[in-house]
Design goal:
Number of strands: 6
Number of helices: 17
Strand order of the largest sheet: 1-6-5
Radius of gyration: 22 Å
Structural class: mainly alpha
Bound molecules: iron/sulfur cluster
Largest sheet: 3 strands, mixed
Number of domains: 3
Shape: globular
């Protein structure tokens, strides 16, 4: 099958062998991959004592098998130099598909495939490496492995709970969203506020008679009206108190690190999670540390102004949003099956989440201003879960996002944490 892949603009990447992906991600494997690894006959003498696999889940979620982790959290196949033993001994194609693909993500878009990237990889965040154009041949090979047979038959994500469009028209909405983020004449926070506003109007539109060029016209009219009517950013109200509660609970989920230890900790782990949820709901006292990079600091400290954002923030986060939008990495099968409008609300919330986490990183080192390193670190932490942690697709998480959108809090949070 001839396959056309659309690569995101602006993004470079090469692996710099940090080994981070092999420490922070659970690698789920198919029965075929398990059989292939068993045939590789690993021994303790090679540094792989076993067990190699962990079974997870139950009858209600389905049983899944993942690679086991070492005591320090690294994959059972990770060597002391941070390299993969399977890759070293049998070559790259012998690894599980999830490892071969990372940090790429491939999503069908009609008869072609769009490529996105995961910003949990620090080299993606810092845009280090070869251009994706230079890797096009390899990416086509990977896309062929990932996109299911008949992927060109897949329908586009829904626009909203009640509206559907075919691929050409769905792509018009996506192009309008990308154009909003490409407009560097408006500060990034302003583009986010505008995008949330017009996308929310898209969710209320009746598309029964809107097709083809009329979709472009609708998007243009909404974009223009929102741009003309948007108040100056310093006149945008503070987030509501309920919006802040929901936002803190969201931040707690983004800030979590589910290590092997957490997964094994049973009731004590659940009790700890409950206490954490209560602390984040109250939002007073000290923020419980959810992973070692975060130190306990007062919640109130994170609400103070941290001054102007580092100059690099615009480039890093504009690139992030455009890669996720162009790669359809925010709705449909790439994001828990949610429609375009709701998926974009979730994506837009990553902006204030990143700024909140960046403040926490800075405050953990007793600083009151952010650096580009804080922004990059916070983005890598946030994107680790976005679209991949089961809880983000749960009804409670989704209703939290919808509630914040309905109350107009997403734009307000973006402005509040930009100051
Ligand atoms: S199998 Fe290899 S590439 Fe995959 S997580 Fe383990 S060490 Fe990393």
């Amino acid at each position: 099958m001839a396959i056309t892949v659309h690569l995101p603009t602006l993004q470079n990447w090469s692996c710099h062998n940090c080994g981070g992906c092999c420490r922070q991600h659970a690698i789920y494997i198919t029965p075929e991959e398990r059989a292939r690894i068993e045939q590789q006959e690993w021994t303790a003498a090679e540094g792989v004592p076993g067990p190699l696999f962990v079974k997870e889940g139950g009858w209600f979620r389905g049983r899944r098998t993942r690679l086991a982790h070492q005591a320090d959290g690294g994959c059972v196949f990770l060597d002391e130099k941070g390299l993969c033993r399977i890759h070293a001994k049998f070559g790259e194609p012998a690894k599980p598909l999830a490892c071969r693909i990372y940090p790429y993500a491939f999503h069908p878009s009609g008869k072609s495939v769009v490529v996105s990237l995961r910003y949990s990889c620090p080299s993606v965040v810092s845009n280090r490496g070869a251009t994706l154009k230079a890797q096009e041949k390899d990416l086509k090979e990977l896309a062929r492995l990932v996109v299911p047979e008949g992927g060109d038959q897949m329908r586009p994500p829904a626009v909203s709970e009640s509206a559907h469009l075919e691929w050409p028209d769905f792509r018009r909405l996506v192009a309008g969203l990308d154009a909003t983020f490409a407009d560097r004449g408006v500060p990034l926070v302003g583009r986010i506020v505008q995008a949330v506003e017009w996308v929310t109007h898209i969710g209320q539109a009746n598309f029964d008679k809107i097709r083809g060029d009329r979709v472009d016209e609708l998007v243009d009219v909404l974009r223009q009206a929102v741009a003309e009517q948007m108040p100056p950013l310093d006149r945008i109200a503070e987030p509501s108190s309920l919006g802040r509660v929901n936002f803190r609970l969201l931040c707690a989920q983004y800030a979590r690190k589910d290590t092997e230890l957490d997964l094994r900790s049973g009731w004590s782990g659940r009790w700890r999670l409950l206490r954490t949820a209560l602390a984040f709901t109250r939002g007073t006292g000290t923020v419980p540390s959810l992973q070692p990079v975060f130190r306990p600091v007062p919640f109130s400290q994170l609400e103070n102004s941290f001054g102007p954002l580092p100059a690099e923030t615009d480039e890093i986060l504009t690139r992030y949003f455009r890669v996720k939008i162009q790669g359809l990495h925010f709705c449909g099968p790439a994001y828990y099956g949610v429609p375009f409008v709701e998926g974009f609300w979730s994506l837009a919330l990553v902006y204030p989440v990143v700024l909140w986490l960046a403040r926490w990183l800075a405050a953990s080192e007793s600083r009151t201003a952010l650096t580009a390193v804080d922004i990059e670190g916070a983005l890598a932490i946030a994107d680790h879960h976005h679209g991949y942690a089961d809880i983000f697709g749960s009804s409670s998480f989704r209703s939290r996002v919808r509630f914040m959108a309905q109350k107009g809090d997403i734009g307000k949070l973006a402005v509040w944490y930009s100051r």
